[in-house]
Amino acid sequence: LEACFTPQRLAGVRVLVTAGPTFEPIDPVRGITNRSSGKMGFAIAQAAQRAGAEVTLVAGPVALPTPWGVHRIDVQSAQDMLEAVLPLAPANAVFIATAAVADWRPATCAEQKIKKDGSGATPTLAFTENPDILATVAALPQAPYCVGFAAESEKLADHAQAKRLRKGIPLIVGNLGPATFGQDDNALLLIDEQGQRELPRAPKTELAQQLIDDIALRLKRP
Ligand code: CTP
Ligand code: CA
Q1: Which of 102, 128, 183, 200 is most exposed, with the fewest beta carbons within 10 Å of its own?
Q2: Is-catalytic flag, 92?
């Protein structure tokens, strides 16, 4: 019923969303990951679907139900996420990267569980940098309209703006953590070439709808 009252601002538009953390294995039972519940990304996928979009959601490991009417692809690592996203990106008009992608992965993944040897010795991990999914998509010849997220612990506007320019994307959405991680509420700062606009503290579901409305307007008036 709710769909009846939601303006179809993105009718027929294809939207690709990444959400959640990625998980980078150390061995078959261990790994490193980022703090991300996936709530914001899932809310954005749902809001886009309600606005009439055809939504594909590429999700890292999260404990959330699939938003109604959304096509969901589950992945684990950053490399898996890139492999899922890249072939889909050119067919989408919008790419919204909300995922908290692990910046580094263990350089090797042990085939068997690493065992304690009883001496108290600790393993040393070497890391490799993960691919930047958002920057890779933004650099494609048929790049969709790319929206990035920037979770920062300080100097939100400065860091987010620098990130927007570094990744070559038109719009970045900043939020301050870790107080908001896993919560149902958030506050967002939208930063583009023109300047910044704040979406004040509200439930993530409401912010998602406001952001989708904002993106729909941008598509109309590029
Ligand atoms: N992102 C991505 N792939 C990565 C890292 C980040 O797609 N390997 C995306 C995120 O989904 C987000 C944006 O880039 O939309 C910014 O992520 P963030 O971690 O804040 O930026 P980094 O460039 O990784 O910088 P840092 O973590 O050092 O602040
Ligand atoms: Ca990062």
Answers
A1: 200
A2: no
